[in-house]
Amino acid sequence: MDQASVTVVSNISPYSDLPPICSKLFEAKARKGLTFDQIAKALGKDEVWVAAAFYAQAKFTDDELARLSRILEIPVAASLGALGDHWWPNRGIGPMPPTDPVIYRLYEGVLVYGQAIKAVIHEKFGDGIMSMIDCTVNVLKKPDPKGDRVVLTFDGKFLPYKTW
Question: In angstroms, rounded to a whole number, what is the distance separating the alpha carbons of residues 135 and 62?
């Protein structure tokens, strides 16, 4: 594949729901042959957080946008103009239930194990929720003789419900 001619079809999901600059970020990432992990390390961030920001689900600071623009060799003014201080994420993209197989399996995991996970959280922590705001997400590849395993870790702060 000629990386100089990489384009993202921006009129299909999930790109059609994103600010147009996001397609430019994905195209530049592909042209440079970079992974989210490589970009994250250059920015001093986590790979899942950087991927979320590419999908307009997290907000880069102006400094991060400028550094990202230099890494991807795109005009700083374009990224700041589209995703700068005036822009805020509209979190939670896509149809429900999800139609993408990977996202659907995550959704299915919550459908199947959600009540059990909730019960265990309440037993261990009390009445409250796990924050998705004060949370980190990690994806690891675990070798296994029967086929590599995906290890997902959600590390969220427990927030007890307030009583008054």
Answer: 22
Residue 70 designated active-site: no
Active site residue 69: no
Q: What are the structure tokens assigned to 78, written together?
A: 């374009």
To the nearest 5 percent, what fractions of the chain are helix, strand and coil? 50, 15, 35
Report the C-alpha gap between 40 and 25 in whole angstroms: 14
- The answer to whether 105 is a known catalytic residue is yes
Distance CA 117, CA 91 (A): 23
pLDDT at res. 94 = 80
Residue 112: how many CB atoms within 10 A of its CB?
10
* CA–CA dist 120, 64 (Å, integer): 38
Nearest of 136, 126, 117 to residue 158 by alpha carbon: 126
Active-site residue (options: 70, 91, 105, 149): 105
The answer, yes or no, to whether residue 92 has pLDDT greater than 70, is: yes
